[in-house]
Structure formats: structure tokens, C-alpha cells
Amino acid sequence: MSIPNNLQGFLNGIFALTPEEIKIYEEAFIHSSNDSLPNNQRLAFLGDSVIRLIIREHSYKKYRDWNIGKLTELCKGIESDENFTIIANNLKIVNHMDIKNPPPDINENETLNAEAFEALIGALYLTNGLEQTRRIVLKYLFADIEQFKDDDKSYLNWIKNHSIGYVVNCNRQPNPNYLILHRADCNTISGIPAKGKFWSKDYIKICSLDPNELENWAQKQSGGELQRCPICKP
Ligand SMILES: [Zn+2]
Fold it and tell me: How many A from CA of 205 to the centre of ligand 1?
């Protein structure tokens, strides 16, 4: 493994911007198995705080009528190593890292992946400032709506990390007569599927923290209105 040859290109691909001080990013791609500095731990230390600041500020402003318990529950899920690991995997960050004796289950290793994502965000903050970093952190961690098709792992991760959110279950081609709104913790849309093997194959799952976003989505996609699940009563 080695630091990406074309680091600019890789960063451009995932951030849609061109950082100028590339040296800082080289540090973000050195794992702490390389005992001596530089390695990515100092940047992960910084990035962790930057991510929390952005997520909490956004949650505070977006959900004005939520108490601290609800805000804490939301942020705990979003800021989890598990969630960062999914993003790091999607971005294929660790595949490009300089790691001594990489473990065989490298993509499953949450500490390694979460640190890699945090370090990259720490570097982004140093090179491009808070506003650009906010745009990217919110894009990856706080999308207004997420759709899951053929990706049960990401779907189940979403409902686990957003237990106070909402899910619309609908056909692959959304049909106005079948748009069921559930709470994310409803047992009819989590665990082992009652019918078939997958959650996000015959049906798709549209997820959001805000039921109004889903209502708008349903209107735009199919001209239909959401029907509320009689079991979880959202
Ligand atoms: Zn339900």
C-alpha cells in the first residue's frame, strides 16, 4: 500500500475541490502503525472535533424544538465510528493508506476507518477552512434524504444510527398507492425481512430525519401522499 500517486486527483474526486497544501494530506494517509510521526492521529484528533462542531451546530439550527435528549441521540448515531467506517469504505480511503502489516479485515476495522475519515476532515479543515469542510461533512453525514436500493448493509446502518428518523417503504418504481411511512425503529422495517431475503431489493427505502422532507419527496416522485404505518404510528 502506498499514498495515492495522484493524491490531488483522489481528493478532487471525493471533495470536488483541489487542496493546495498537499503535504498535510500526505500525513492523513499515514497510519499510526508507522510509529514515528508524522502519522494521521494528530489530524484525526482535530478532525473529530471539527465533525462534531459541524454536526451539532447543524442539528441545533435545524431542529429548533428538540430537547437535548433527542439532539444527543441523533448526534451519537451520526458521530459513531460505525457510521464513519461506512463512509470511509465508500470513499475507499484506507485502500490508499500507508499501513504497516495491514489487517486482513481492513474494511471492517472501525478504529482504523474512523480515524482515516477524521484525519481527512482534519486536513480539509486546515487547508480549506470551515465553510468548505461544512459543505462536505454535511454532504456525507447529514443528507436530507437517503435512498437505499440493493444495499441492505447501508440501510440497516442508517436506521441503527438514526433511530429517531423516518423511513418510507415503497416500490422500486414509486407508486402513489404504496408509500408507507414508518418510524426508523419500527420492527416491520428492521431486523430480518419477513418476506424475501432483502430489505432494499423489491422495495426501496427512503430515509430522513424529517418527515416533511419525505412528504415532499413523495409528492415530487409520484404525486402521492404518504400512508402512515398502523404499527409504529409515525
Ligand atoms: Zn411501522
Answer: 13
Domain boundary among 141, 169, 191: 141
Amino acid at 134: R
146 is catalytic: no
Ligand 1 center to 122 CA (angstroms):
39
Which residue from 207, 218, 216, 212 is spatially nearest to 165, judged by alpha carbons?
Answer: 207
Catalytic residue among 27, 115, 118, 144: 118
**What does the pLDDT look like over 78-116, one tens digit per residue?**
999 999 998 999 899 988 898 988 888 999 999 999 999
Residues 89 and 177 in one domain: no
Q: Model-level pTM?
A: 0.80
pLDDT tens string 45-76: 999 999 999 999 999 999 999 999 999 999 99
Question: Domain check: are 161 and 104 in the same one?
Answer: no
Give the phi and the psi of residue 143 in degrees, each rounded to 5.
Answer: -60, 140
Whether residue 179 lies inside any domain: the answer is yes
Residues with CB under 5 A from ligand 1 (ion): 182, 186, 188, 229, 231-232
Cell of 99: 499501513
